[in-house]
Amino acid sequence: EFRLQSGTAAIHSLCMRILLILFLGDGCLWKEAERVTNSRMAGKKVKRYTEQIEVGTQNHHFVLKDFSRLLDCQIEKIVLFLLEKQGLLATRLSNLGEQHHALIQQSDGSRISELQEAYRAAGQELLRLLFFVEMNAIGVRKILKKFDKRFGYKFTDYYVKTRANHPYSQLRQVFKHVGFGAVVGAISHNLADLQDLQNNKGNYISIYDQPAFSHPDPVIDSIKSAVDRLSNSTNFLHFLGRHAFIMEEELPTPSEDECLEQRYHFMSLLLNLANTFLYMVNTYIIVPTADDYSLSLGAAATVCGVVIGSMAVAQVFSSVYFSAWSNRSYLRPLVFSSIVLFLGNTLYALAYDLNSISVLLIGRLFCGLGSARAINRRYISDCVPLKLRMQASAGFVSASALGMACGPALACLLQTKFKIYKLTFNEETLPGWLMALAWLVYLLWLWISFREPHCETKENLVPNEVTAGQLANVAVENGYTQPLLMKIEAKQQDEDEDQERDDAEEASQEIHKPVTSIVVAYRLLTPSVKVQLFVYFMLKYAMEIVLAESSVITGYYFIWPISRVAIFLACLGLTVLPVNVIVGKYMTNIFEERQVLLASEIMVCIGILLSFHIFNPYSVPQYVGSALITFVSAEVLEGVNLSLLSRCMSSRLSRGTYNGGLLSTEAGTLARVVADGTITLSGYLGESKLLNSTLLPALLICVSSIIATCCTYNSLY
After folding, report:
1. pLDDT digits (tens, 9 = 90+) for 109-122
2. CA–CA separation, 425 vs 404, rounded Å?
3. What are the residues whose beta carbons fall under 8 Å from the beta carbon of 67, sequence distance 6 or more?
4. CA-to-CA separations, 660 to 143, 379, 533, in angstroms, rounded
5. Which class for 202: exposed (0-12), middle (13-18), buried (19 or more C-beta within 10 A)?
């Protein structure tokens, strides 16, 4: 039987109850556990604050300061316990080091295995300590988020601003794993040395002299994974995975893991990644020739904005119905997508011989209606096991980047002209014919190889067991918590507590329900998340302006042929992966993500400013350099932005039709629609004014996003 508390009482006691998980696991701090149980007295005091706020008799400022003091107290206890455990672990490793040295001096090989197991046991102890810190870091984030949501304060802004950057910050001790690196190094290099000694190689290989050398021990791999999760200082693979913005629950249940293992099928995942690649090729293969195709059909060159943007317009709607369709099936929407894309590309190619701009636009609309990127994201989120999800997410981003580069490159190779019967094949129609053939081949491969997942989807999953970690998650999301220490006296609970238990059970079910409407999804967005979605809109707008009008601008100012435009766009696309390598491996390990975010926004703004045609003549170095700065900065910004979004969004947005991936897709697609519409409307001013008239809105949006980011900077934690 559990006793439930609500409101700030639950928030106040959460950190200490997470501590209790580790205390009981050690089996040695029952006195401390009893003291934690007595903290309910303080919880009642905070509960009275909640009641007084509701009736308007308590001062908000006093509650804010008092709650800060309570949270400071709990974080201090976390940090002191952490330091105590680190000291004990260091002493243990020091003793093992002395035994290791004696073993080497005596050349006693019989005790090597025993010493290796002792180091592994120390590694397991470190893993428990890392889990302790991770649980508390998640708890602190959710405490701050829940306080803001429940009371309407900007408590997170105040608390993080005053605590995170203080020279004696204890909050930083929780989020920055101080001292763990040295412990990991001690365990790792001693295990490697013992393994080398056991193999009788006779030579000493230091992990410090050769960083690439490491002992392939499961304990070390587990510790490294735990440290990466805790610190968010991720490698390239993890950074790419976050770039994909595959929303996932923080603490999946065992039943979900088992279900995912049953649903996973490698060939089906590969087909989803192939769909992503082909769609990105389909999007960008027509960009170098869109203006010439419009001229061939009797329209203005700037109509290329409508031609390119019509695909994005249709994608706004297709993302929603494909996301809803994926609740029931994955194969059928993918088959439908392939058929629609085959028809769309065929119509696009036939428009030349039919001499109809309407057929051209209808073809591109069909291509947008076939956009299955929501399916691709959802499949990775719902059908790939957690241990493989980051690799699959990285594959999604890599496939997108490769398709973005291959599209213009293929357009460069299709510089030929011939006729078969009455059908014309030239640089304008060949992209359509080629993609129609590609989607036909893909459809056959899909029908033969794709396996429909049969296990129940996430949306309908109701876990049968709730772990301690999940209880903490439900508690913070819904304002309830359950003590982890059961007592015989709990049987004598009154009727009010029974009612609270019923409420908590309903809350536990509510947290697993997916969002059912766009209105509910919008209500779950905090101000900082809304700002991040606006930043995503801004960067997609800037990128689309650079890409979509490139053929018109370069043709007007530099008289570039199609092949040169295609090479330029392909080179821009090829920068995606190298840039993510730099950001994922280095920048996010040196700087905070919010710092990289703001710096990237400023660089996008600088790139836009440098693009303006102010002085004559407008040179190739100015255009190429400014476009490169804008595009690369936007790529950096996209990865960091989606990484922050994946942490800040509500866990309810990881499931259902209106998930976080759909919201980000819609924001980016709307940005492309607006950008392409801006290009077309600016075309009425003439090609000489096209560049400046499209860059001005981009500059205003960029400046607005920088201001909005500065206003919410302290909450991006």
Report:
1. 667 788 888 888 88
2. 23
3. 8, 12, 46, 49, 147, 155
4. 21, 14, 10
5. exposed
In terms of Cα–Cα distance, which of 250, 243, 364 is closest to 297? 364
Helix axes 468-478, 8-26, angle to 10 degrees: 170
pLDDT digits (tens, 9 = 90+) for 610-621: 999 998 889 999
What sign for the dihedral angle of Cα 289, 293, 295, 300?
Answer: negative
For the CA atoms of 57, 59, 60, 63, the dihedral, rounded to the nearest 10 degrees, stands at -100
Q: Closest Cα partner for 51 from 10, 12, 7?
A: 7
- pLDDT tens-digit map of 221-275: 777 776 666 655 445 555 666 666 665 544 444 455 566 667 788 999 999 999 9
- Give kind and range of the element (H or E) at residue 369: helix 357-369
Tokens of 11: 């928030």
CB 31 within 8 A of CB 521: no
Q: What is the spatial distance between Cα 627 and Cα 551, in angstroms, rounded to a whole number?
A: 13
Whether pLDDT at 592 is above 70: yes
Q: Is the pLDDT of residue 589 over 80?
A: no
Instruction: Name residues whose C-beta falls within 8 Å of residue 406's C-beta, 6 or more positions apart in sequence.
Output: 277, 280, 281, 570, 573
Q: 127: buried, middle or exposed (CB in 10 Å: 19+, 13-18, 0-12)? A: middle
CA distance 491 to 503: 18
Cα separation of 108 and 257, whole Å? 45
Other CB atoms within 10 A of residue 664 CB = 24
* 51-69 as b/e: b if 16+ CB within 10 A: eebeeeebeeeebbebbee
Yes or no: say if 570 and 562 are a contact pair by the CB < 8 Å rule: no
In the predicted model, what is the mean pLDDT of residues 138-149? 71
Please say if the pLDDT value at position 571 is more than 80. yes
CA distances from 241 to 278, 388, 597, 643, 646 (A): 19, 11, 17, 9, 10
Tell me the three state secondary structure of residue 639: helix
Which phi and psi (to 5°) does residue 164 adopt? -65, -40
Task: State yes or no: pLDDT of 368 exceeds 90.
Answer: yes
For residue 178 the two structure tokens come to: 């101080």
Return the closest-CA partner of residue 313 out of 661, 680, 674. 674
Question: Residue 450: is its pLDDT beyond 70?
Answer: yes
Residue 295 near residue 301 (C-beta atoms within 8 A): yes
What is the helix (H) or strand (E) element at residue 424, kind and residue range?
A: strand 423-425
**pLDDT beyond 50 at 469:** no
For 84, counting Cβ atoms within 10 Å of its Cβ (0-12 exposed, 13-18 middle, 19+ buried), the class is exposed
Q: Determine the pLDDT at residue 503.
A: 47
Tens of pLDDT along 20-78?
443 334 433 333 333 333 334 434 545 565 666 666 655 667 777 777 888 888 888 88
In order of 131, 487, 567, 713, the CA distances from 138 in angstroms are 11, 27, 46, 19
Average pLDDT, the chain: 75
Query: Do the strands 5-6 and 480-481 form a parallel or antiparallel pair, or are they unpaired?
Result: antiparallel
